[in-house]
Design brief:
Blueprint (H helix, E strand, L loop, with lengths): L1 H12 L3 H4 L4 H4 E2 L2 E2 L2 E5 L6 E5 L2 H14 L20 H14 L9 H16 L2 H8 L4 H8 L3 H9 L4
Antiparallel strand pairs: 1-2, 3-4
């Protein structure tokens, strides 16, 4: 249950692993429901980033939190060793390695950052909107986004070929 909630949350939030493991229940919950959107301050940049949580993500988080219990000040994903502590980024990386290996992929090619990129990359491929990709990942400079995404001349030409005047 925890792993499903963690996986869904990682995909929808598009956060770095260090930010995912620090999420507290109060960041995601409003009253008795999981919020549709939330905002966190990114550890790396110190800047706020907003993200959405789709129905599947909200459902798996709700199931996990009902089982987990806790208060709004507790971490969503606690440590198994120290219940008052949080899941470590190292343990999160181990879990992602297990997931990747379990579905037959090479864990050297996929990791926690792959989950961060997944949804944003799909949005970019569907829309070609580089600015949306930049905002979703919380990048301050478009140059970083271009480098991160690996946009090259072929990508630009494919987008141009979709438009006929």
């Amino acid at each position: 249950m925890r792993d499903r909630a963690l996986f869904d949350f990682a995909i929808d939030s598009k956060l770095r692993g260090c930010d995912i493991v620090k999420i507290k229940i109060g960041d995601l919950v409003s009253g008795a429901a999981i919020r549709n959107r939330a905002t966190v301050i990114q550890q790396k940049t110190g800047r706020p980033v907003q993200f959405e949580m789709m129905t599947d993500c909200r459902n798996s988080l709700m199931k996990w939190l009902e089982r987990r219990g806790g208060s709004i000040n507790d971490h969503v994903f606690p440590s198994r060793v120290d219940y008052l502590g949080r899941l470590s980024t190292r343990q999160y990386a181990r879990l992602v390695d297990e997931w990747v290996t379990a579905i037959g992929l090479d864990s050297r090619e996929y990791g926690t950052h792959s989950l961060r990129r997944t949804k944003a990359s799909m949005i970019y491929k569907a829309t070609g909107n580089l600015r949306a990709f930049q905002i979703l990942l919380g990048h301050s400079k478009i140059e970083n986004t271009v480098r991160y995404l690996g946009v090259d001349i072929d990508d630009a030409l494919v987008l141009a070929e979709r438009i006929e005047i």
